[in-house]
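To illustrate the input format used throughout this study, we show a single complete record. The first block contains the structure-token representation of the backbone; no residue identities are included at this stage. The design step must infer an amino acid for every position from geometry alone.
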């Protein structure tokens, strides 16, 4: 187990579906490769994604998913 890690990425990829659903503008998509150094093939990892609203300092959990390292 490589332990807990924290990475931050800006949501700056166009997502017209998000804008259509919520009317918040198109740049709310993100992509980030995961550095799996220290993990073993077959190991189960958990990835949580949070949204941060910098205007009010709010942190909201969007999802947590589990993956097996290949």
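Output of the design step:
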């Amino acid at each position: 187990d490589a332990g807990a890690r924290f990475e931050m990425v800006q949501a700056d990829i166009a997502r017209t579906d998000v804008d259509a659903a919520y009317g918040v503008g198109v740049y709310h998509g993100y992509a980030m490769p995961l550095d799996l150094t220290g993990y073993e093939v077959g190991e189960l990892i958990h990835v949580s994604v949070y949204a941060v609203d910098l205007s009010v300092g709010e942190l909201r959990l969007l999802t947590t998913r589990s993956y097996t390292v290949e």
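Structural context for interpreting the output: Strands lie at 13-14, 27-29, 44-53, 58-68. The longest strand covers residues 58-68.
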